[in-house]
Amino acid sequence: MDKKIQAPISNEDANSLRAGDYVYITGTIYTARDAAHKRMYEALEKNQQLPIEMANNIIYYMGPSPAREGRPIGSAGPTTASRMDKYAPKLLDLGLKGMIGKGKRSQAVRDAIVRNGSVYFAAIGGAGAILSKCIKKSEVIAYDDLGTEAIRKLYVEDFPVIVVIDSEGNNLYETAIEKYKE
C-alpha cells in the first residue's frame, strides 16, 4: 500500500505502517552514519547533550557526494544499516521514530523498534542520484569535521522508502522469503 507521511513522524503514523508499505516522506529528516553515531553514543556516555533531538525524528544512514551547482546535495543513496546496530537501540530508546538505510538489522535493533513503536525503512541502493531529487534543502548541523559523515538536516518531499520492519516487528525480509517459497 502507498502512504504519505510527514516528518517528524507521529506515533500514530509509525504505528499505522506495515512491512511492505511504500511510503513517501515529506518534511525534516537527519543524516548520520558510522562516525556520527559513534560521537553521539560517546556524548551519551558522558551525559552530554546530543546535537539533534531524537523524539519522533528519522535518521537517514547516508553520506552524500558533493552537490552539483544549483543543487542542495549530491548523490544521496543509503548505506548499510547494520553498521549502526551497536548504537541504534539507545537512540530508539530516546525516542528516535524512524531509520532509513539498506540491509538487515540485528535482533537488538528489532527488539528496540518494537519496544519503542518505531519503524525501519529501506531506500533503494544504487538510486542515490534519483533520491537526491527529493531532497530540497540540506544543511550541516553537527560534526562538520566529519565531512560526508557530518550530521545534516534535510528537507525532503515525497522521499520514497519501503517499510522493512514495522512497529509490531514484522520484517519484510522474512515475510517476502516466505511468500516467495509459496
TrEMBL record:
Pfam families: Fumerase_C (PF05683)
InterPro entries tied to this protein: Fe-S_hydro-lyase_TtdB-typ_cat, Fe-S_hydroAse_TtdB_cat_sf
Coiled-coil stretches: none
Tree of life domain: Bacteria
Domain spans labelled Fe-S hydro-lyase tartrate dehydratase beta-type catalytic: 5-175
Keyword terms, alphabetized: Lyase
Family statement: Belongs to the class-I fumarase family.
Protein name stated in the entry: Fe-S-containing hydro-lyase
Record organism: Eubacterium segne
Organism taxonomic ancestry: Bacteria, Bacillati, Bacillota, Clostridia, Eubacteriales
